[in-house]
Amino acid sequence: MKAELVTGDLLEQKVDAIVNAWNRNIIPWWLLWPHGVSGAIKRRAGLQPFREIGRHGPIPLGQAVLTSAGKLPFRGIIHVAGINGFWRASEYSIRQSVRNAIALAERQNYTSVAFPIIGSGAGSFSQMKALEIIMDELAQIESKVQVVIVRYTC
């Protein structure tokens, strides 16, 4: 499958769902400093998606969990455990996050999903390398889901 790479705001994409590059959900969401994609989602969606994700308990590295979109106009938010307990992303966590997010989008019959560059924020992974991994993983997946990868700019 191919993806479209755009520069902009993940929360402004015209898609069914967005992907939140989340953590493994070991530390309660309300103890975490809101920054990056998750911080933007909290500010604009409200707390409902994070209350929902908190009920899932620990998320295995690279897995994906669906919540509502709160006040955002999406059908859902797919939260992926893209960083480990030491707040680091890896090739494994990025690849598995992409694969599991697409599988979840397919199960929900979403036609489109927007990804941030997983692992390149709080996960301290090189943005260029993370993007390369995401594109490579998507190229190995057969799916009808349309993917937009959003490179954030301030």
Explain what the structure shows.
The protein is an alpha/beta fold and about 150 residues long. The chain has a single domain, classed as Leucine Aminopeptidase, subunit E, domain 1. It has 4 helices and 6 strands; from the N terminus they run ββααββαβαβ. It has helices at about 35-45, 50-55, 90-105, 125-140; strands at about 5-10, 15-20, 65, 75-80, 110-115, 145-150. The chain has a 6-stranded mixed beta sheet with strand order 1-6-5-2-4-3.
CATH classification, class level: Alpha Beta
Mean pLDDT figure: 89
Level-2 CATH architecture: 3-Layer(aba) Sandwich
Major sheet description:
6 strands, mixed
Report strand %: 15-25%
Overall geometric form: globular
SS-based structural class? Answer: alpha/beta
SSE order in H/E notation? EEHHEEHEHE
Brief description of this entry?
The protein has 154 residues and is an alpha/beta fold. It contains 4 helices and 6 strands.
